Each structure stands twice: as C-alpha cells, then as structure tokens.
Amino acid sequence: MKAIRRFTVRPVLPEALHPLSDLARNLRWSWHAETRDLFQSVDPERWTASGCDPVRLLGSVSSGRLAQLSGDRRFLRRLSAAADDLNDYVTGDRWYQSQPAELPAAIAYFSPEFGITAALPQYSGGLGILAGDHLKAASDLGVPLIGVGLLYRHGYFRQSLSRDGWQQEHYPVLDPNELPVSLLREPDGTPSQVSLALPGGTALHARIWLAQVGRVPLLLLDSDVEENDLGERGVTDRLYGGGSEHRLLQEMLLGIGGVRAVRTYCRLTGHARPEVFHTNEGHAGFLGLERIHELSYEDLDFEAALEAVRAGTVFTTHTPVPAGIDRFDRELVARHFGPDAELPRIDVERILQLGMETYPGGEPNLFNMAVMGLRLGQRANGVSLLHGQVSREMFAGLWPGFDPAEVPITSVTNGVHAPTWVAPEVFRLGARQIGAQRTEDALTVGGSETWDAVADIPDQDIWELRRSLREQLVTEVRERLYASWRQRGAGTAELGWIDGVLDPDVLTIGFARRVPSYKRLTLMLRDRDRLMDLLLHSERPVQIVVAGKAHPADDGGKRLVQELVRFADDPRVRHRIVFLPDYGMAMAQKLYPGCDIWLNNPLRPLEACGTSGMKAALNGCLNLSVLDGWWDEWFRPDFGWAIPTADGTAVDDDRRDELEAGALYDLLEQRVAPRFYELGQAGLPDRWIEMVRQTLSHLGPKLLAGRMVREYVERLYTPAALAHRSMDHPAARELAVWKSRVRAAWPHVTVDHVETTAATATAELGSTLSLRVLVALGDLAPDDVEVQAVSGRVDSEDRITDGTTFPLKPAGGPDQEGRWHYEGPLSLDRTGPFGYTVRILPAHRLLASNAELGLVAVPAEELVEGAGVLMR
Length: 872
Hints:
Blueprint (H helix, E strand, L loop, with lengths): L17 H8 L7 H10 L1 H6 L4 H5 L4 H8 L2 H19 L15 E4 L3 E2 L5 E2 L3 H16 L3 E6 L7 E4 L5 E4 L11 E2 L9 E5 L5 E11 L2 E7 L7 H4 L10 H26 L6 E5 L6 H10 L5 H10 L1 E4 L10 E3 H6 L12 H8 L10 E3 H8 L2 E4 L2 H10 L15 E2 L6 H4 L2 H11 L1 H9 L14 H29 L19 E6 L15 H8 L6 E6 L7 H14 L8 E4 L4 H10 L2 E4 L11 H6 L4 E5 L2 H6 L5 E4 L9 H25 L8 H14 L5 H22 L2 H17 L4 E7 L11 E9 L8 E9 L10 E4 L1 E4 L6 E9 L6 E9 L18 H7 L5
Parallel strand pairs: 1-4, 1-11, 4-10, 11-12, 12-15, 15-16, 17-18, 17-20, 18-19, 20-21, 21-22
Antiparallel strand pairs: 2-3, 5-6, 7-9, 8-9, 9-10, 13-14, 23-24, 24-28, 25-26, 25-29, 27-28
C-alpha cells in the first residue's frame, strides 16, 4: 500500500551527542577526513548504507547505539575535538583576514548548480562541480562569500542502462528534510520566502533552504510550496529540464529571487551586504536587473542604476560555443517583465536591449543570457587562457572596431578543491613527508610554485600508492558493474565473468564526463581492431574505465553511450573496458585516483577548461589530452602527452576524427604503454614514476581551487568592490550622463591627419620618430577621450599583430575648424615589417576599460594610405 503522507522522523540525540547534529549540518564533513571517520565509527555498516551521508546516518542509528556512544568516553573526546575544530575553522582568521583592508565586505556568488557532495545532488557536471569547489575554497580561505542557487526536487537525473545499452533516466524525489539543509526562518519561526510577480496577476513563491558549506552559506530557492499553483510548484523540479518558459522562470527565480534571498539572509543574520555580485554563467544574469530595480527606489534613473550595478558585477562565461548559451524569444521575455509582471519600474524595452543580439551575425529577435551578463558586468572572464581568447572572439561583436585581443574579457583558469578530490592515501603520503597541517595548508591555501617535498618521496612508496589506488578502483568497478548488469536484467548465474574484470597491475585509462558530441566519447572506437589490440596486448595491455551521462533530450549523445556500451559488452574485451552508468561525485572520487592515464579528446577549442584531468593529476594520474582548456596552458612533456590536433581548414570533421584517433593510438602504442611497463634497475618503472613525481610537484600547485579563488579576489573581486564604492549615486549619474553625451557625439569624432618625421619607408632599429595627429572631437573635449598610437609588427595584409599602445599628448587647439593637435614619440623597437596607426577612444576615470563603450575612431582608408607603413 502507498502512504498518503510522508514524514521525516528525526532521532533524538542524547545531550552528550548534540554536537553530531552540528557536524552533520555543516558540509565541511564532505572534505574533512577526521569528521567523516568520526561518523563512520558511529555505525560502519549504516555509514556505508547511507551513502556516507551523516544526516541519513543519524536518521537510521538505533537509540541503543546512541545511548552506548553517549557513554563512550573515547568517542566523546573525539566528538569534542571535531566540534572544537569546526568552530575554530568557521570563526578563526584565515588567508582573507590577513589581506589589505580594501577587500570586499562580502561577495554573492550565483550559479544554476552546485556540486558540493553526492549527499546534496544539485549538479549535472563540470559547471556545478566547479561552483561547489569555488565555495569550498572560499571557505578554506575565509572569503566572505554567499552562494545562491536553486533546490531541485529531482536533482539532475539518475542514469541506468537498458539491456541493449540505451540510457534510461530516473528522477527520484528529493525530500529537503532528508538533505543536509535547513529552512531559513523569520524571527517568529515562519519560513522566509521570496516572491516573483507573474503575468496575469499570479505569483511565484519560493522558500529558502540553507546549506552551510564550511564558513560559506549556500542559499537554495525551492518553489515546491503550498502557496504556488501546480505549475509554479514545478519550476524548481529538475535541473536543465522543461521548455523555454520553464527555463526562463528558473533563471528569473535564480537571479531576481536570488538577490531577494540574499537581502533576506543578510537582514536575518547580520551578514555583511555583498559589494560584489558574481554571475557564474548567464543563467543567473537577471540578478543585475533586480539590483537596478532596487536602485529605482533610491531616485536613480535606469542609466545611472545600470552604471552602479555594473561596477560591482563580475560575469564568468563557461561555454566556448554559442549553442551552449540560453537564448529566449523576445516576446517570451517581454511578457514576463513590465507593469503587469516582474520589475514594473523598468521599461521592458530597456530590459530587452540588454540581451538582444544587436550585432553583426546575431539574431535580433533572440534574448541572449550571456550577452546580458556581459552588458551588466563591468568585469568578465573565461575559465582558461585559451577559453579567454575564444570568448573574446565569440563576443567581439559587442565591441565593434576592436581587435578580439582587446575585448575586455580576461581569464581565470579553473582549479579544483584538493581536499575533496585527493584520495586519503595521497594525503597521508604527503603528511608523512611534511606533516598533516602543512599538507592541508598546501592543498587549500596553496601559494607555492612547487611542492618540493615530493622529490624526497621514495620511488617504491609512489609506486605502491599508485598500485593500491588502482586496486581499489578495480574493486569499485566490479561492484558497480555487477549492480549495473543486474539492473539491465542479467541473472546472477551469467555474471561470474565480472570477478575477472580489470587487473590491478594493468595500465588503466579513465574517461568520464558529460556526453555532448564535441567531447567525442567514441573517438577511441574509431579503429576497433586497433583498440582491441591495445586492450589485449600480450605484454603491454591497457584497460579503460568509461562513464558519462548524455542530456535527457540529446538522442545523439545517447547513441554514443550505446555504441560504447555495446563495444564494452563484447565478451572478447569486456574484462578490459567497462562503462559505468550514473556518473557522479561518489564515483568520481574513486575513479580519478585509481587511473594511471586521464584521457580527454574534445574538438579543440570547444573545451572551456575541463577540470576532471586536474582532479586526476592531483592523485598522480598523468594526462593524455588534446591541447584544449587548461591542458593547452600548462602541458609539459613531464606531465603527460598531447594528442596532436588536425584542425586545418581543409580537414572535414570525419577526416579530423580519423587523424586524431590515429594519433591517439600511436601515442598509446609507442609511448604511453611502453613507458608504464618499462622497468628500471630496481624493478620499478622509474621513468613513469618520475612523470608522476613531476605532475605532483610542478603541476599540482597550479591546479588548486585555492589558487583560483585567490586570483578572483585579487584580480576581479577587489577591483569590483573598489569600483562599487567609487560608484556612489552622484558618480553613477555623472557616468551615465557622460556616456550618453559621448555616444551622441561620437559620429563626429574623427582622425583627420597623421604625419611622422620619417622621410622613407625604411628606418633603423632603435630610432624614434615624431608622430603628429590632427583630430576632430565634435562636441567632446580632450578630457573625454584618449588619442592613442598603436604600433608593432604587421602581417602581409598590414594588420598589426602584436601591437603596443601608448597615449599621445594634446599639443594645441582647437584650431579654426575646431580640430585638436596631438603628438608623441614613436619608438622603432623591433625589426622587420613594422607599422602603426592612430585611434581615439572614450576616456573617463570610472571606466574599467577604454573599450567599455565599444566606441573607437580610426583613420579613414585614404588617410591610412597617405601615412604609409614603416620598416618594410
């Protein structure tokens, strides 16, 4: 019989065990080994059965066992020590508290998904795991961050396979009362709520659940409340589910409702109000509109409020492809804003202008969330050096007249939270070398260029560690494979072969990630005979563990999964290659440490960063990857191997896959496998061990989320906070009026004449020429602009390829025609084809970049021809 109502019955902990509840409710346990060990000792069997979730564990422990523990003095001492340690962690000074005083009082960090722990399944893949690692690293560093997301009642989805290998999705209902979260409540005990106005006079209500991530509060909005109609209750049902309107409502709730949730949390707790708002991908972009709407009540018009909001906003883009960005029909967006819906004090046309693709190649009837994010954020970044470059090119239309290199999008390369992803055995090896506290500091705060102590670890210890981790993975794979085959309908009698799957002494390759087509899950199957030879080699075999989910609506991705599964089902190779369904954090934490090689073969440059290889590397796994994302930035032959890219314009997709698959097989056959199996004088693969050592000592410190968050603080959060403080109401009005005046006057800003002292088209290296320029500024004054010279090497079409800019100084004017004279020295500091040009840019003390307005004036074509090119 089915229950008509469900309750969560919580245990009554004896008074002596009350600290267990606080430890369970703070998600620091998910990356703090001592706290996890404490919970495991409560009841080892139930700990495993609970999925290593303290909240579920405490809900299932018998009262007899609790009474026994409350009288166990040794356990109580451990409990007291763990509670004291957590208190010191959340209240004591950390890295941030030792930094200069101008740092932000608080930062609000918005993301559509957060991967904190498998016990809180609110993530689908890399974006969410990155967001979770960002929060954990901020906590370790003491950064006053507030996380904001949605609480999805079905999470993403659970994946299983049919008998013929087709992906099947399951959506178990998550009861927040059984998750490590608690309701945010008003002083009278009622749950706090935020509401959004909807078209037709209805409303969308949401409660605020609080997950405590170490020192960092994470606010999760939940629309499944009684005050909502059935349709509104389902707004937060699934991550990345539903149609356009469903997604729009999710993103309105995340952005607009999220700001309201932050205001509520700060009011109730006294937490500092955020000076900086960080939008992790475009899904949360509406937060800027809500903040503009707030300022409309403070007597700021739209343009001034926009400047005030932009100053303190950071936008991070994670996608290198336009198809990865949420875009909505103009009419759909318009219907949800304005007098009859949300943000009634803002004119709908102003809102639409922020997101419309009003640039060459854009679709003018589509509202683009990333475009809005860039227009609402004064500072923006990609997530690796290469991705920053790709993003500048992809969004260059927003800054017409500027070379992509000058588009104001920088990059902060992602990192991963080492305490979450480093196996306990790896941590213990480091602790034996330099002590537990120094090891913990090295993995969290970071800051050193190299981990020199790794050089002193004996080869034997490294090799034994790697084999032990591989052996654990073999055990894990067999258990998961058995469960998967039982789900697929196999009987026990036909599964005896699973006991022989994988070998702890065989070179092990891992490949696990989402399954969009560009990640090329099945590239390894391109030449199946050659792959079989690799798997079954008599002296140097390899074995491969594969995992990944295709989006529920992506049948192409599901076909790739099925193709891989069917190959792995072949009795000839099924002991050497496996596909594990339901890839998630719990599986990943076993998979990364147990692999010797982490394989990544996306279509370059479509991998924005790709952090799975970072997690593997921190455990001594070597990377074998296309030069994309972070690997393009930090690859060295000491750390692994680069798969050559066949990206010539004459190569079609099919030929490219063929060439790159061939290169992958060559590397495995000729370089990777021989090095793994080649033994030195001591009977160990010393050349392989040295690569592991180099990976840990030289690559490891770069990969940390602590390094990443420190970069955000120093390069983006602090400048944004300073800009926010400078942009008080008078300054915001001043800047808005100035921008309006500059835009109106710009059509009349021209470079009218350029001349140098050069008499010929050649000159000597090191010489200096005098550059004189005549410009018309229309209704603007010299204080409104900067006149620049740009010089450097030129290509065959006279384009400056490595330009250096320097300002020219006013030398007189205006003349009778209203023109101004500028001049300055032009240094000829390099040999070969060399050229220069002149341009005029808007200039104001409150701009973060001269490119901010997307306005530039350059010489007309006939003027360029007259000025000539130097040093041909």
